[in-house]
């Protein structure tokens, strides 16, 4: 342990306890409060699937009832817990030049009853699949990043079928909202909560929306938003609009500068960048800010990416490149949330249950993000020279948390009890399924 000062089990245990304590007051009874803490610890554990059955077994419960009740019937407000988590994250990572990052991710589903599920495009599969899509807001601050908010996307096929919505527990006041509208709502909530932030970043699904861009300008947030190659860029005072890829094709070689968009797993991520800082807006020419077009070129393949930018005050190319590079932190958060704390492993169908499960996942992810950041800070302070090791990643921190903090239950009687319980429950479910099929065949 002495040879690896950044490994701090005692500090990590305090982080886990502190995150859970931040929202403990949202539970009026001690039982759901303890269950919520056990739920978060279970999400951090190394069990294969993070469902209520497995989480209950990991927590030492005799049945999954407490875990299921926490997601379905217990009295607590997932949005209030989300607010508490956001405050913890901002308290640790907050910075005046922080970036809010919007993106969506999908969970593949087999049935038709999970809230928001339908055949739709999801980047998870890279094609149209039966899926449930959530829109998320990430926060990238001084020395760390994680997810701070979430919204489940309800397609028109759901919002136009109020009976289906009622069956999934969707509140009557919830209507259809585009993904960019959900993103705008989360950004408004963050700004209203006085989250320190100067920038917003998103991919072209959001950057192509003039309404979304205007929403950010309304909050006086600078932005670097990806747009499609066919995006029309207003030039010459808005008198003409030219495709972004055509503008790039006509740029001289002298227009390109090689800069790093940040450090990745293999070192600095260098691209060639071109910046047109005399672009006018197509929505609000008197907004008092500065519009520009940023173009990124891959140094190996020549592939181009385009960004609409806006700043309240004059900005530098280095600032815009930094924000463009930070957008990828949300992808890292998705990967960690799914591979480490089970974001896509829930087996819930209802509106409240989805938000509750996802909020507790955000809590577990916050624990990992804070612990990884603390480990990096300890390594910097130690400054003992090149150790031949990379810094502790979120994945490695979770492995070490399971080694030092989360002790698996090895009691044989407990494991055998759960084996009998699972097999008995599955046998009853199979009998019910066969009986239902037989009745349907007799009726036909």
UniProtKB/TrEMBL annotation:
Residues 23-233 form the Transposase IS701-like DDE domain. Pfam families: DDE_5 (PF13546). NCBIfam families: transpos_IS701 (NF033540). This is SRSO17 transposase. It comes from Micromonospora pallida. The lineage of its organism: Bacteria, Bacillati, Actinomycetota, Actinomycetes, Micromonosporales.
């Amino acid at each position: 342990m002495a040879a690896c000062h950044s490994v701090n089990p005692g500090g990590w245990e305090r982080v886990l306890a502190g995150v859970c304590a931040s929202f403990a007051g949202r539970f009026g009874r001690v039982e759901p409060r303890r269950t919520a803490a056990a739920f978060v610890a279970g999400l951090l554990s190394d069990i294969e699937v993070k469902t209520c059955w497995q989480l209950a077994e990991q927590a030492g419960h005799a049945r999954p009832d407490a875990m299921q009740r926490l997601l379905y019937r217990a009295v607590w407000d997932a949005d209030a817990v989300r607010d508490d988590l956001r405050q913890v994250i901002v308290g640790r990572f907050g910075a005046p030049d922080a970036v809010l990052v919007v993106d969506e991710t999908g969970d593949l589903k087999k049935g038709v009853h999970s809230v928001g599920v339908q055949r739709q495009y999801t980047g998870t599969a890279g094609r149209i699949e039966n899926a449930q899509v959530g829109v998320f807001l990430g926060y990238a601050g001084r020395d760390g990043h994680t997810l701070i908010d979430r919204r489940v996307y309800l397609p028109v096929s759901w919002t136009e079928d109020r009976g289906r919505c009622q069956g999934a527990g969707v509140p009557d006041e919830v209507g259809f909202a585009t993904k960019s509208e959900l993103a705008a709502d989360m950004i408004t909530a963050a700004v209203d909560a006085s989250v320190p932030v100067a920038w917003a970043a998103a991919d072209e699904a959001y950057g192509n929306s003039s309404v979304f861009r205007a929403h950010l300008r309304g909050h006086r947030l600078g932005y670097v938003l990806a747009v499609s190659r066919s995006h029309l860029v207003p030039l010459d005072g808005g008198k003409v609009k030219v495709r972004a890829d055509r503008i790039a094709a006509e740029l001289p070689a002298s227009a390109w500068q090689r800069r790093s968009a940040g450090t990745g797993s293999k070192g600095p991520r260098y691209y060639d960048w071109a910046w047109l800082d005399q672009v006018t807006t197509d929505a609000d020419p008197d907004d008092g800010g500065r519009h520009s077009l940023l173009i990124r070129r891959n140094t190996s393949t020549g592939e181009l990416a385009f960004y609409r930018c806006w700043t309240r005050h004059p900005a530098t190319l280095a600032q815009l490149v930094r924000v463009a590079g930070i957008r990828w932190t949300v992808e890292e958060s998705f990967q960690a949330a799914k591979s480490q704390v089970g974001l896509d492993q829930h087996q819930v169908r209802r509106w409240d249950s989805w938000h509750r499960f996802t909020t507790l996942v955000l809590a577990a992810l916050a624990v990992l993000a804070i612990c990884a950041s603390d480990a990096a800070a300890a390594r910097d302070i130690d400054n003992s020279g090149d150790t031949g090791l990379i810094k502790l990643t979120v994945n490695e921190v979770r492995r070490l948390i399971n080694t030092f903090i989360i002790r698996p239950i090895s009691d044989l009687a407990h494991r055998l009890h759960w084996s009998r319980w699972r097999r008995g429950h599955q046998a009853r479910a199979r009998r019910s399924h066969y009986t239902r099929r037989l009745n349907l065949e007799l009726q036909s």
